[in-house]
Amino acid sequence: MSSPNVITTCLPASGSNVHKVELPENALVLSPTRQLQSLLTIIRDEKTQRGDFVLIIRLLVEEGLNHLPVIDKKVTTPTGKVYDGVAFQGRICGVSIMRAGEAMEAGLRDCCRSVRIGKDEETYQPKLFYAKLPDDIAKRYVLLLDPMLATGGSCIKAIEVLLEHGVEEEKILFLNLIASPEGIQKVCTRFPKLRIITAWVDEGLDNNSYIVPGLGDFGDR
Amino acid sequence: MSSHDPNHLHPAVKPQLQPGKYSPKSKNMVMASHGRAPWYGPDGKNVETYVIGIAGGSASGKTSVARAILSALNYVPTVLILSQDSFYCAHTPEQVETAFNNDFDFDHPDAIDTPLFVKCLLDLKQGKATEIPIYSFVHHQRMPEKKYIYGASVIIVEGIMALQSPELRALYDLKVFVNCDSDLMLARRIKRDVKERGRDVDGILDQYLRFVKNSYDNFVQPSSRHADIIVPGSSNQLAIELLVTHVKRQLDTRSLRFRRMLAEAGEEKAKARSRSSTLVDGEGGDDNVVLLEQTNQLLGIMTILRDKTTDRGEFIFHADRLSTIVVERALSLIPCQPKTVKTPLGIDYEGLARDDRLVGISILRSGGPFSHGLRRVIRDVPIGAMLIQSDPRTGEPLLLKSDLPSSIKSRDTSGEVKVLLLDSQMGTGAAAMMAIRVLLDHGVKSTNIIFLTYLITQPAIHSVHRAFPEVKIVTAAIDPELTEMHIPYNPDSLQLGDVAGEADFAVQHIPKSSTNVVHKNGPEHKYENGHGQEEGDDLRGAVKSENELSFDHFKIHVQDTEELKFSRSRSKGVESEKRAWVISPGMGHIGDRYYIS
């Protein structure tokens, strides 16, 4: 079983200060495997097209799903033997923060069959424009999708909307591609029971509140 | 028949000829029947291929002898006849000129590129892939293209100079000289050349006196003293029979009862191991066996895949998802180079770039699902395939077809290629070893091979690891044991693919009349009392009938999806059984569950 806040190192994480930053209890960073680092290199490259993002997102979703509960289940295999396995518990719902989060939906669908996906709108100023969420969202685990966590403003707004719709805070998993240390601190302090799963923590923010070195405006790309 | 008229196919000089009517290139022939049984021992090392060298004068009957041996060895999967004609030297423009003027001595030993001949034959003898030159009699020149040859079980080398060079002689297991009276050879030569090559008698005699006779007297005939056996060039049925009997006996002593050896060796280990621990990392924390982290999601996926009630849609979805996870883990093992890119903010980022000399090879059919996962992760990766099934008679794996990417086929690149070998499960490890051996035979480095699978048994890890310790294995689960099962089938509607298991879902055909004593060989009995038996009568098979398997993996026909009993006592309507080694608890026949609804 993977446990949060354990970071195993495969290679020195170049260009990142992930190991120097004190992360809050409820933030998890993916292991910096060669595969993850080469994928990140591809998506940071200004020449990269949008299609390549999906691979990293799937890694995030797989990690996120691991935080959902399971129950023991015995099944009979085709050879007639009994196998002690587990079954997934709880229904899930993916909520993407528009526009950028939509790019993550395909990655989610690769891992979850017939997952419900709702929409949430964000702008530079965190103000809700549009929310289209499944009716039974209060009973579900929510995978909140937003690739970039910079200042954390839009993310906090989206989480507030989910809470207003009755979702329990501990049932929200925030899946994120690249985060700034500031953003993580802000979100985790505000919502201590929520979990953040991010692929990479970058150095920080520039004067325009862009993550550096980052990967530009995800939504535009 | 190697001595030839340099002019016989040159239309400019002899316009009445019909080029292509007789092509000496066809002397190189490959006879392939069914698949190829293991050509290596359990240690993973190749057993040398049996090589027969046949020399003799022009028109002495070498080719007839070679073909007689070939047809007598029709049970041997791949017999290659390698003709000396392919190895004529590359010529200078002057030599080509001489050849067109009928003045080039093709019957002299120097006309043959012996070093290249030796190198190619040595490669083939050691079981490696090779590329032989193509010589064109139309252009009197070696062509720039080469012919890729791999996988002969027996090689017959024929040519007038086959016994001439000591380097070549050292490679033969059996040296044959076809002896024929000169007048008979000349008579045959005249008859053949007039009829097949449209030449006139004067020309033939002229060439005979200038080159052929000298060559025969000075080089060919004297080489007969190196022969193990001298066969008459006519009325030689008896001699050929003796020859073939000898060859068959030699081949028998080399044949390997392979999967059985593996299963036996592995079983002991597995039993010892399963007593001490259930899920351990291969050979005690070895880096080269990577078991995926057993997360909740992974266990959940495995539960769905193992459950016999899982429907096909669900199975495919989760198999694809699992493949993707396994592929991503395996890619973490591929070396990376530092790479600096500019982000859209104009900042340099020091990242990593994966070695892109990467190919996937799936072992069909059960490796098929994996190639979907690989394509998801790397869209443009070249994917090759090997079709490996198990021989219904012996239970051994058979290589039926291999279709490899060009980067592996060429020796110039194969040394650097990283190969992801894909198969959904590894039971005995026999098919995996065969696939690995094929790659090594092509010059792929064992450190560059990663085997990806959903499910592997302890015995398989042991066998593969012992033979190829440097090959990495990435698996989602390790099952403790291999269970033997008996699956009834109806031999009336039998096709080759029906009884053959595939890859590591090993299947062996057992005639019903002798269910208890299968083969004469002693060790077989052990399996009859194997630990899989006691469940026999209770097992209501969810392993779908192997009858549904089609030899051709692209056309899978579904005849009957009804569940079968694994009972040995059941005899109504079923006259034969197949014996299968299956992974236990396992997940059944992954290929069937993925492809057949």
Explain how this protein is built.
Chain A: Its cofactor is Mg(2+). Chain A: Belongs to the UPRTase family. The complex is a heterodimer of chains A (221) and B (597). Helices cover 24% and strands 26% of the residues of chain A. With 221 residues, chain A is an alpha/beta fold. The N terminus of chain A is likely disordered. With 597 residues, chain B is α/β, with parallel strands linked by helices. Helix content of chain B is 32%, strand content 23%. In chain B, strands 9, 12, 13, 14, 15, 16, 17, 18 and 20 form a nine-stranded mixed beta sheet that branches. Classes of the chains: A alpha/beta (221), B alpha/beta (597). Chains A and B meet through α1, α2, β2 and β3 of A and α9, α10, β10, β11 and β22 of B.
Supply the key terms.
heterodimer; A: 221 residues; alpha/beta; Rossmann fold; eight-stranded mixed beta sheet; two-stranded antiparallel sheet; 5 helices; 26% strand; disordered N terminus; B: 597 residues; 3 domains; nine-stranded mixed beta sheet; six-stranded mixed beta sheet; 22 strands
Can you summarize this structure?
The complex is a heterodimer of chains A (221) and B (597). Chain A has 221 residues and is of the alpha/beta class. Chain A has a single domain, classed as Rossmann fold (3-Layer(aba) Sandwich).
What would the principal axes of the Cα set say about the shape of chain B?
elongated
End-to-end span of chain B in angstroms? 57 Å
The CATH architecture of the largest domain in chain B can be given as 3-Layer(aba) Sandwich
Spans of chain B of 5+ residues with little confidence (pLDDT < 50)? Answer: 1-26, 272-285, 490-574
CATH superfamily of the largest domain in chain B: P-loop containing nucleotide triphosphate hydrolases
Residues in helices of chain A, as a percent range: 10-25%
Mean pLDDT value of chain A:
75
CATH topology of the largest domain in chain B: Rossmann fold
Secondary structure tally, helices of chain A: 5
CATH topology of chain A, by name, is: Rossmann fold
Query: How is the quaternary structure best described?
Result: heterodimer
Helix content of chain B: 25-40%
Largest sheet of chain A: 8 strands, mixed
Structural class of chain B: alpha/beta
Largest sheet: number of strands, sense, barrel closure of chain B: 9 strands, mixed
Along the chain, the helix and strand elements of chain A come as EHHEEEHEEEEHEHEEE
Residues in β-strands, percent of chain A: 25-35%
Q: What is the β-strand count of chain B?
A: 22
* Secondary-structure class of chain A: alpha/beta
Q: Determine Rg of chain A (CA atoms, Å).
A: 17 Å
- Strand content range of chain B: 15-25%
